[in-house]
Amino acid sequence: MTGNSDALAIPAEQYAEHLKADLDPDPIERPPGPGHTNPPEPTLLERLAAEHAQLDLDTEALAVRANALPAVFKTDAEKATAGDVAADALALWNVGETVRVAEKAPFLKGVRDVDGHFNPRLQRLDRIKTGMLARVTAYNNAVIAEQRRVRDEAERKAREEADKLRRQAEESAAAGRAEDAFADIEDAVAIETQARASTPPVQSAADLTRLKTDSGATMSSRTVWTFEIENVDLIPLDKLRLLFKRDAIEAAIGIYVKNGGRDLAGVKIFQSANAQVSRRG
Fold first, then answer.
1. CB-CB contact of 199 with 155 (8 Å)
2. 160 in helix, strand or coil?
3. pTM given for the model
4. CA angle at residue 131 from 129 to 136, to 5 degrees?
5. Where in the chain are the domains?
6. What is the C-alpha separation between 152 and 148, in angstroms, rounded?
7. 208, 138 Cβ separation under 8 angstroms
8. What pLDDT, in 10s, does the model give residues 83-139?
9. Partner residues linked to 211 by β-bridges
């Protein structure tokens, strides 16, 4: 916005056409003449700065106009001037956004093409890896569950036999047969001790999976606590209050207000006369 401070240095439409012409060249490349040395190609940032310098100049001029206005408006004239600045900012923003989209389009297409080539292959490999590890995890859990079942069953049988001997010891003691009572108690303790000693311990997930394959791959695992929601309505959210990030809470409040909510403890809900500006006709 050089020159007249009330209008863009170059009208938005003219500037956009100028940029479009620069963005869609069809040059004919000719080999350099004898002894000619080509200068180094400018970087992307250098090219953008050179080709769109006018956008920077107009933005700086607009910033000068904006900074000349007071921080708090006291008259309708100041409000009207601010409206003109905002309208010029909107027009210049539309120009800049159009150029940004046009400049970025070839890169986006390249990114989409690269992702389109590699992503299906990487996703397939990830599914293979995930599927294999899921089967190993299921195997680990099944082995651990069986080891626990065997241990629990052995302990249950030993406990039943020991309890039977202790009841016999109580009957022998009541009948005055002290030696028989002591013998039954010793046998009960021996049975429980033998059960604990003879039952192999349950392996940890790390011990169960720690191995090296014939090809040299190393497998390992770790025990983790996980969860699945059974009934979301029964979750005591108060216990999770400190874990909610503020932006997530604000997003939820925003949806609540948008849906008509007008009363919420700890929140001030009010109307605001937000200013807007539209394109000049």
1. yes
2. helix
3. 0.51
4. 95
5. 12-20+43-125, 127-222
6. 6
7. no
8. 999 999 999 999 999 999 999 999 999 999 999 999 999 999 999 999 988 888 888
9. 219
200-251 pLDDT, tens digit each: 776 666 666 666 667 777 777 677 788 889 999 999 988 998 999 999 999 9
- Beta strand ranges found along the chain (DSSP E): 211-212, 218-219
**Residue type at 44?**
L
8 Å CB contact between 69 and 82 = yes
DSSP state of 243: G
**281 vs 279: CA distance, rounded Å:** 6
Q: Compute the distance between CA of residue 171 and CA of residue 185 in angstroms, rounded to an integer.
A: 12
Structure tokens at 267: 């929140």
Q: 56-76: string of b/e by CB count within 10 Å (b at 16+)?
A: eebeebbeebeeeeeeeeeee
Q: What are phi and psi of 213, to 5 degrees?
A: -75, 170
